[in-house]
Write a structure and sequence with these properties.
The complex is a heterodimer of chains A (144) and B (286).
Chain A lengths: L11 E6 L3 H10 L8 E6 L7 H9 L4 E6 L10 H18 L7 E5 L5 H18 L3 H6 L2
Parallel strand pairs in A: 1-2, 1-3, 3-4
Helix pairs in contact in A: 1-4
Chain B lengths: L3 H15 L5 E10 L2 E7 L8 E2 L15 H4 L4 E5 L1 H12 L8 E6 L28 E3 L12 H8 L3 H12 L7 H5 L24 H14 L9 H5 L6 H16 L27
Parallel strand pairs in B: 1-4, 4-5, 5-6
Antiparallel strand pairs in B: 1-2, 1-3
The chains are: A alpha/beta (144), B alpha/beta (286).
């Protein structure tokens, strides 16, 4: 990270599923757990709703990191949405890596409604990682 | 070049047309550019004498089957090479075409050449030189079934740093003029309304600018993941020579690694993104 980036605070976009991770994040809040305020949450019905375009759009609009989080395997409210998401993103992230996107800026996790603590630690770790990486200049330059 | 396959294709087309079994026969005819064959539509037995087959028959004729205007003519006779047959089977697998709508004339193929006379890249990885999905098979068996192993081709890019890969692909996508020839030429890009034409909201920007170019080329490739027949029509059609097959091969390789699936000539095989296993790999998920 360059001198100019001192004091940089990353923009993190989190796509989280309504039934597990959103409730987990809510639990973290109602439990008064502290975590960094860099994350912008976008609630989706299920990780199966995730279109790969959402990730690209987030970066286009200036995100420095993207988090996708949903129910643990077997816990999907709709039965199998997260299984499809797992397949889709296993391959999509490989494609992104191949075209030169830094995979350290994309994080996937399973966080249940009971795992407020896990939400806090995932956000803390990811925010710190992206902050250390600095602004996502490469993508922002093509988005001007 | 009147090889044995040319004569046989004419004979079959004539017979099908004169018996009225098909309304139109899609094959290759003599072209007017670089000695390259071009697609022709034959509707009468007399016209069938214009049909040829040689190593310049590079186009994938299956692309025409995705257009309702062609299917509406009636039963279609069509010449396919192995790679084209994979695309045709893909259309059947995805319920875009009924088996009864086509009479398939498959040709055995030792490879076709590009405009410069060199063997097409895709032919170096051909595992369907002897098609197994057809009504009529033309040509003598070809011995060489090649492994679909792209590691040698992809290694150069996979060993680059993230920044180098980004630079390389930006320099490629920068050329894109958004003509969508890749999409039009692809037999499996059949959506009546493509995502790039949806503008409320505008998911992919349509101006010829890196931002939209990047999203378009990535999404085009990904929408073909686990479906791409590897026929190379997109790359052949690209007027600015973006190496689109690198993306398609990369996806095929990863899908093989993850799900052990490869596009084949079986209309019943289950594409990877229409199914799942509870124990799929998820090593990247916290």
């Amino acid at each position: 990270m360059s001198e100019a980036d001192q004091g940089f605070e990353p923009h993190i976009v989190a796509f989280i599923c309504n039934w597990c991770t959103y409730a987990g994040a809510d639990l973290a809040g109602t439990s008064r757990m502290q975590y960094q305020p860099n994350v912008r949450v976008i609630r989706i019905p299920c990780t199966g709703r995730m279109d790969p375009l959402f990730v690209l759009k987030a970066f286009e609009r200036g995100a420095d990191g993207v988090l996708i989080s949903g129910c643990h395997p077997g816990d999907c409210h709709y039965g199998e949405g997260n299984y499809h998401a797992r397949r889709k993103f296993a391959i999509f992230r490989k494609l992104l890596e191949f075209v030169g996107i830094d995979l350290a800026r994309i994080q996937f996790s399973w966080i249940s409604a009971a795992e407020g603590g896990k939400w806090v630690s995932v956000i803390e770790d990811f925010t710190n990682r992206v902050r250390a990486l600095g602004p996502y200049r490469a993508y922002q330059e093509i988005s001007l | 070049m009147n090889d044995e396959r040319t004569l046989k294709i004419r004979e079959i087309a004539k017979e099908l047309l004169s018996k009225g079994e098909i309304a139109v026969f899609i094959g290759y005819g003599k072209g007017t550019c670089n000695g390259k064959a071009r697609p022709i539509f034959v509707r009468t037995p007399e016209e069938a004498d214009e049909l040829i087959f040689d190593s310049t028959c590079s186009n994938n004729l299956v692309t025409y089957l995705k257009f309702p205007a062609v299917r509406d003519e009636g039963v279609v006779g069509i010449v396919v090479k192995g790679c084209d047959a994979k695309a045709l089977v893909g259309l059947i697998r995805e319920s875009q075409l009924m088996r009864e709508q086509v009479r398939i004339v498959a040709v055995t193929c030792e490879g076709v050449v590009a405009d410069d006379g060199q063997l097409q890249l895709r032919c170096q990885y051909c595992d369907v030189a002897n098609p197994t999905f057809y009504d009529f098979l033309v040509g003598s068996p070809v011995e060489d079934q090649k492994p679909r192993d792209f590691s040698g081709l992809l290694e150069k890019y996979e060993t680059m740093s993230v920044e180098e890969r980004w630079e390389f692909w930006q320099s490629q996508f920068e050329k894109c003029i958004r003509c969508y020839a890749c999409r039009q030429a692809c037999p499996l890009c059949y959506c009546t309304r493509c995502i790039v034409e949806k503008n409320q909201p505008q998911w992919i920007e349509t101006s010829s600018h890196l931002r939209g170019n990047f999203a378009w080329n990535i999404i085009r490739a990904f929408h073909l993941a686990g479906r791409c027949a590897g026929c190379g029509a997109c790359e052949d059609a690209c007027p600015v020579d973006i190496p689109l097959m690198l993306l398609n091969y990369k996806l095929e390789k990863e899908i093989w690694d993850y799900f052990h699936y490869r596009v084949d000539l079986d209309p019943e095989s289950v594409p990877p993104f229409t199914t799942f296993k509870t124990d799929d790999r998820g090593e990247f998920i916290l």
